[in-house]
Design a protein that fits this description.
The protein is α/β, with parallel strands linked by helices. Helix content is 19%, strand content 24%. Strands 2, 3, 4 and 6 form a 4-stranded mixed sheet that branches. It has a 3-stranded mixed sheet with strand order 1-7-5, with no helix packed on it. β2 and β3 form a beta hairpin. It is elongated and about 90 Å long. It starts with 10 loop residues before the first helix and ends in a 14-residue tail after the last strand.
Length: 124
Amino acid sequence: MQPVVRRRASRTVTVGVVAALAATLTGCGQGTNVSDDYAQICRDNSTQKRLPDDDCNNHGGSAHWYYLPLGSSSRTVPAVGQPATGGSDSLPSGKTAARGISSDGDSVSRGGFGGSGSDGSHGS
């Protein structure tokens, strides 16, 4: 007499596949992809630290728009209160800038999924 072979229900396999798929998709969703050449942030030119965008919208003090170039690899845009260097005070002619970068900072890269609207902005 042969021993009875018990098979596990496929539910165990399904749960494992769903968990692996969720981890993969979460990893792909990190950072922001834009089609723009620069990331526009508000910066205090005296301290060189990032400010909330509202400071530049209200034209307060030494707050000015600042443009961080986005290369072929991702760039970390600093959070509000962190130093912001390596950019320029003006947007070069013919270039576009992504606006509304999270005030918590973000990893921003050009191309890929997401992109931006015709006004160069994306969600915050």
